[in-house]
Fold:
Amino acid sequence: QVHVVESGGGLVQPGGSLRLSCAASDGTFSSVAMAWFRQAPGKEREFAAAISWSGANTKYADSVKGRFTISRDNAKGTVYLQMNSLKPEDTAVYYCAHTWEHTIPADSEETSPWNFWGQGTQVTVSS
Structure:
C-alpha cells in the first residue's frame, strides 16, 4: 500500500497562482511516474498532468497546457503542480496519483493505470 498525500489547495482569485504538492510514502517513488487529476462538482475525474520517473517527460491536458507545470523532487519524494493564470473553471478537487510504471502510461488520461490516490485538495478560483 502506498500512501499519497496532497497539500497546497485553497481559494485564489482569477489570474492567480497556486502550487500543489504531493508526497508519497513509497521507497520506489523515484522510479515511478506520477500524475495529477481533478474533479469538479458533478463532473467525472479528469486528467491534468503526468510526469515520468526522472522528470524528463511530461504530459498535459489541453485545458491546462501552458498554464500548469508538473515537476518532481525525487530526493524529497514530492511531486508538484504549479498552476498559473487560474480560471474559475479550474475549480475542482485535485488528486495526486501513483503508478508502478516508470514512464507515463500510454493511457495516462484514464484512471485505470494509476494504482494509488490521495484524498484530494480543494482548489477554488473565485473573485
Remarks:
- The chain has no helices and eleven strands.
- The longest strand covers residues 18-24.
- The CA atoms of residues 36 and 96 lie 5 Å apart.
